[in-house]
Amino acid sequence: MHSAFILVPKDPPVQNHGGAFEVAAESVFQAAALAIAEFRRRCFTEAGIGPGTHLKVAVKAPATIHEVSFGRLEFWLQSHGKSPKEQALKADLRARIEQ
């Protein structure tokens, strides 16, 4: 399972331990997208998430941390999936982020 941590600008300050959300995901990009969707669902959109926003994704076991920019996440979401399953996953993640 991956846990995603969103680093956001200090103004305005963000609640919920600096914008950290734990999500169940099979990939780094899926974890990042689900965390962005949760972040937006909790009405933290005023924090200004954009292409330069960096996301840290921590894997619980074995312990690993990945960093991906929101711009790179957007690029991955817009690219074609390698399989119908991946295409469906990307469509679902795009819909969650845009809510």
Question: How would you sum up this structure in a few lines?
Answer:
By secondary structure, the protein is α+β, with helices and mostly antiparallel strands.
Description:
It is a single chain. By secondary structure, this protein is an alpha+beta fold. It has one domain (2-98). The chain has four helices and four strands. The chain has helices spanning 15-19, 28-41, 70-78, 84-98, and strands at 2-6, 20-22, 54-59, 64-69. It has a four-stranded antiparallel sheet with strand order 2-1-3-4. Strand 3 (54-59) and strand 4 form a beta hairpin. Helix 2 (28-41) packs parallel to helix 4 (84-98). The longest helix has 15 residues, at 84-98. The radius of gyration is 13 Å and the shape is globular. The two termini are 24 Å apart. Mean pLDDT is 78; it is low at 8-17.
